[in-house]
Specification:
Chain lengths: 170, 395
């Protein structure tokens, strides 16, 4: 079965923008992705070393009020993304267990890149207090100065090293 | 409780969390349909052969921006209730750059890695697990690697927004972005066409209806103009320091039956002492506003309390009238107007001054008995439509 076409990017953008707008109107904040791993880490930290967690520069923000760090809008929102992504792929005929890569790299090589890039992104998202969704998309929409700086730097970083890692894509 | 409709106030936390699942679902579904579950397609952005990331992301940002600030302009959204990312410039510069590096390496960003793994992609699973590791790495090292916490905390950490940096209304800045984005989209499609000839890109988004971007841009521009047209001229939500008025000048104005003057008695216990003749009692905010809204435009409203502490007009008071605070309040009135002076001046001029003042004093002391019939209703009420119409609801 041939997979369904992707949406027109501008149509997808309009739909995404309306979802983001709805998030601001309903919940008072934008969309995000790294809240789930950060808060899950806070739960783990709280279980193993509560004092360290309470004094940690990152995790202390999530345990300060004594509530369950995972009982949070952004956390359930990421669970929604998981479900939406799954049903989207399923209904479009794109659900498949495979590795996306260019023809000139091994599966192992591609997964090493994915792992290396992932670690860097996790570190960066924690440092910048948000990722492409929470900072660039959501902060950008409400005109946060720092979010726009972040967004420009994401593109700068991507284009700066794109040539060095082209082997896995082309 | 704010008067604006958005953001919504929920009766229960459970229902609010439910909206998170629903909107997250739509977010994930839309990302998948845009092609963002595919690392190769996302990476195409950085090789200029597939600009879908740029197109989708900026269209979404602009739709939400025009929506949020447009609704705020017409008074439906309370911006101060929204979470706006605080600005920590150094951390955002370094973090943004690193995230871009990780993005092109993994072909995914944190949000799209979730979509990718949900579509069954192994690279998505690996990237998501690695993001977890990266976050843990930062969390463990931030407190002891020299300088890392400084970098993390450096900067104002305050909410800074571009329209305030540039000093223009948000909705106008949004319109500028819309115009710029449509031009950038046209450019992006030209660049794509050039680079697609060189390489064979993967699963391109079908180039259907290229005019769609103009429709979106035009729609957003219309929304901005509509919001501008509907935005109510907001009363200056700022308290105003009132100029003071000498009791004798007020007395003079009352004697002359100046029609443009209205007197407001703001004492909380008006029964304790006889007030100024013709004054409208307004012992609380509601009464004051009711009286003030009845005043014709450009009326001079003289307010007084017991001893002249009330000198700042609150933001809720209408700005269509002028305010004056009676110097010394009722105390000032009693000592300067109602109390006759000893005629100990030497010059003729001084003696005339005293004489005139005592006439005024006698007028009010004598009139005090029949004050209600002489000076009330307050002169301002007679003014009717007399003052020239200057301001009627502007656009």
């Amino acid at each position: 079965m041939k997979a369904k076409d992707y949406w027109n990017p501008y149509l997808a953008g309009v739909v995404l923008g309306l979802v983001l707008l709805a998030a601001f109107l309903v919940a008072g904040n934008g969309l995000g992705a790294t809240a789930l791993p950060k808060r899950a880490l806070a739960v783990v930290g709280n279980g193993i070393a509560p004092e360290w967690t309470a004094s940690n520069a990152v995790l202390s923000n999530y345990v300060a009020d004594g509530a369950n760090p995972l009982r949070n809008w952004l956390v359930v929102e990421v669970i929604g993304v998981l479900l939406g992504g799954f049903l989207g792929a399923l209904s479009a005929g794109r659900l498949a267990k495979k590795v996306e890569k260019g023809p000139n790299i091994s599966v192992r090589g591609r997964l090493l890149y994915a792992a290396g890039g992932g670690v860097i992104m996790g570190f960066a998202a924690a440092l910048a207090r948000g990722c492409t969704s929470g900072q660039a998309l959501s902060g950008g929409a409400v005109l946060s100065t720092g979010s726009w700086i972040f967004m420009l730097m994401v593109f700068a970083g991507g284009y700066a090293v794109a040539h060095l890692v082209r082997r896995q894509w082309v | 409780m704010s008067e604006t409709l958005f953001p919504l106030a929920f009766a229960s936390d459970e229902f609010r969390l439910l909206t998170g699942i629903v909107l997250g679902f739509l977010f994930g579904f839309t990302l998948e349909r845009a092609g963002f579950g595919n690392a190769r397609k996302l990476a195409g952005q950085f090789y200029l052969e597939d600009m879908t990331v740029f197109k989708v992301m900026f269209t979404a940002i602009l739709v939400a921006m025009v929506g949020v600030y447009g609704l705020a302009a017409v008074g439906l959204v309370d911006i101060s209730m929204l979470w706006i990312n605080p600005t920590f410039t150094p951390a955002q510069v370094v973090g943004g750059f690193l995230l871009g590096v990780g993005f092109v390496m993994s072909g995914l960003c944190p949000g799209t890695s979730v979509v990718s793994l949900a579509s069954g992609r192994i690279d998505g699973w690996v990237a998501f697990a690695a993001i977890f590791v990266g976050i843990a790495l930062f969390t463990f090292t931030v407190d002891w690697v020299p300088g890392l916490n400084t970098l993390y905390q450096m900067g104002s950490g305050e909410v800074s927004v571009l329209h305030e940096v540039f000093g223009i209304p948000a909705i106008v800045l949004a319109l500028i972005f819309v115009v710029g984005a449509v031009a950038a989209f046209v450019g992006a499609e030209k660049v794509e066409a050039i680079f697609q000839e060189k390489r064979q890109p993967v699963e391109l988004t079908p180039p259907s209806r290229p005019r769609f971007k103009f429709a979106v841009g035009g729609g957003l521009a219309v929304a901005v103009l509509l919001a501008l047209a509907l935005s109510a001229p907001r009363p200056q939500a700022r308290p105003v320091q009132m100029a003071s008025l000498a009791p004798l000048s007020l007395a003079q104005a009352i004697i002359e039956r100046d029609p443009s003057i209205m007197i407001l008695d703001l004492r909380t216990d008006p029964a304790s002492e006889r007030g100024i003749p013709g004054a409208i009692p307004a012992s609380d905010e509601e009464e004051a506003i009711a009286a003030l809204s009845a005043a014709p435009p450009n009326t001079t409203v003289v307010v007084y309390d017991a001893s002249g502490f009330f000198t700042v007009a609150p933001p809720s008071w209408p700005r269509t009238v002028d305010y004056r605070a009676l110097a010394g309040g009722l105390e000032g009135w009693v000592t300067q107007v109602l109390t006759p002076l000893e005629a100990n001046g030497t010059s003729l001029e001084e003696r005339n001054q005293v004489l005139r003042q005592n006439q005024i004093s006698a007028f009010f002391s004598g009139a005090a008995v029949q004050a209600t019939s002489v000076a009330a209703p307050p002169p301002a009420m007679q003014a009717g439509g007399a003052p020239k119409k200057k301001k009627s609801g502007g656009c």
